[in-house]
Amino acid sequence: MGLFQSKGKIYKPVAEINLRAESDEPYTHANVKAPRVAGFLVKIFAWILESWILGPTVLHILKKDNLVHKLVSFAEIPESPMFTATHTIEDLREQEVTCIDPNLTPSERVKEALDCLPASLETTLETGFKRWTIQDFSRAYNSGETTPFKVAKRFLAALENSSVPHLQMSFFINYDAKEILKQATESSLRYEKGTPISVLDGVLVAVKDEIDCLPYPTTGGTKWLHKARPCTDDAACVKKLRSCGAILVGKTNMHELGAGTSGINPHYGPARNPYNINRVSGGSSSGSAASVCAGLCPVALGVDGGGSVRMPAALCGVVGFKPTTGRFPSSGVLPLNWTVGMAGILAGTVEDVLIIYAAIANDISAFQPKSLLPEFNIPQLKSSHLLTNIKFAKYGKWFNDSSADIRSCCNDALQLLSKRYGWKTVDVTIPEIEEMRLAHYVTIGSECTSSLAPQLEKINYGELGWDVRVALQVYGSFSSREYLNAQRIRNRQMQFHKEIFKRADVIVTPTTGVTAYPLQRDAFSTGELDYINGAALIRFSIAGNFLGLPAVTVLAGYDTEGMPIGLQFIGKPWSEATLLHLAFAIQAMFIHSYRKPEVFYDLLKTE
Question: Which parts of the chain span the membrane according to its record (predicted)?
Answer without folding.
Answer: none
